[in-house]
Amino acid sequence: MAPNTDFASIGLDRWLVDALSAMRISKPTPIQAACIPAILNGNDCIGGSRTGSGKTVAFAAPILHIWSQDPSGIFALVLTPTRELALQIAEQFHVLSAAVNAKVCLLIGGADMRQQALELARRPDIVVATPGRLADHIKSSGEDTICGLRRTKVVVLDEADRLLSETFKADLGVCMSVVPKSKKEELGGRQTLLFTATMSDELRAQRDVKRGDERRPLFFHETNTEKMTIPPTLSQHYILLNSHTREAFLHTLLSTPLNTPKSAIIFVNRTSSADLLARILRLLEHRVTALHSDMPQRHRIDSLGRFRAQAARILVATDVASRGLDIPTVDLVVNFDVPRDPDDYIHRAGRTARAGRSGEVITFVTQYDVKLVEAIEERTERKLEKYVDEPGVSLEGRVVREMLQLVSEKKREAIVDMEEGRDEKGVRRKRLREKAEGFGRKKRKEAKDGEKTKD
């Protein structure tokens, strides 16, 4: 990138340059400087760059630039794997397009589907969706609702490596069945943009695929993808422990003088673990909130908002929080559970040490996790270093002497609270079911009585 490169010099309109400046973005990152001109030129694009490098702006800004010249119908469809990422992308489009008032429609699970269908039927300018929810609309909302998608000019797959995996294959296939094909047809072929932090072999292979004259030329750019690098400012440590002492070690670690001021994300592998661990830490008087896929959407939004606003110092999360979320204040990441996939470790680590800042990842390792750690070290090409106690603080000593009994008591209390909560939910569900069944019996009786009256 040339030293004097700015957004105006790579082709963006002045109103977009001003909008970016208002967001304190004055110089394009390498991924933005490379991809924005190619997208403006009409190329299909595959862009790879590590988390925090500005990939959303790399596709959102040129999309809005082109849309503003001829705004009509659903111009762009952006698909992304998680609700939180979809919310974040929709927010970026809202902020960037404030001067021109682009209509952005957000389609994610956990929100009212009927209201979403009404918004989609009004032909918004930009649709941001998770594949599952959009597939639901395509299957059930009717042609009048989804027909605008059939003229979509641009399709974006954000976190493309995940969207192209088996997990999303069926839903993604349904979504792509309603948008124009890549080839030029009577209605014009769509422009396809794929962005990712982890460049898979499948995506790299697209560089060598022969493309006929009828297809748009492909622009491929890869720089500092997470397949290649862990930030040099990131410290990686491990603590070897017994599995039954993990909660006590975590409480002790978060309570040390060095870590008390730090914001932290604690990653676990299961939603039930996230619920339990958040309850334990709350009982131990930590400012904590949780984020996982089993939470209602409103609670997920609230939790992320509390953590971003620093109302909660600690976020306990599953891997739903490991990709793409822009949380710039994270100082510490703790892998309470070792991730099964080394790529997930890299994405978790990417929540800290962003934009040149320093950060630390600490992984709790039991005797059952050694092979997983070896796979992570091979993948990242860096060894995890043994955690060294702060001067005057023996982590293991404090756990044994002071914390083990206390944390065990709080864990039992948290488990009881969770069981009582499940019982209350069960009672509420039973009441609702009985109410619905009673209402059904009443309607059937009314219908039967009506038939008798006719006779």
From TrEMBL:
Per UniProt, what is one Pfam family of this protein?
A: Helicase_C
Q: Where is the Helicase C-terminal domain?
A: 233-396
Where is it mainly found?
A: nucleus
DEAD-box RNA helicase Q domain residues: 5-33
SMART domains given in the database record? DEXDc, HELICc
Localization, per the record, is: Nucleus
Specify whether RNA-binding is a keyword of the entry: yes
Q: Which GO terms describe its cellular component?
A: cytosol; nucleus
Q: Name one GO molecular function term.
A: hydrolase activity
The chain positions of domain Helicase ATP-binding read 36-217
Sorted keywords for this record are:
ATP-binding, Helicase, Hydrolase, Nucleotide-binding, Nucleus, Ribosome biogenesis, RNA-binding
Q: Where is this motif: Q motif?
A: 5-33
Gene Ontology biological-process annotations: gene expression; ribosome biogenesis
The cross-references to Gene3D superfamilies, in alphabetical order and at most eight, read:
P-loop containing nucleotide triphosphate hydrolases
Q: Which domain of life is it from?
A: Eukaryota
Outline the segment boundaries, as ranges, of region: Disordered.
418-455
- Composition bias of kind Basic and acidic residues appears in 434-455
Q: Which family does it belong to?
A: Belongs to the DEAD box helicase family.
Name the chain's protein. DEAD-domain-containing protein
Source organism of the structure: Ascodesmis nigricans
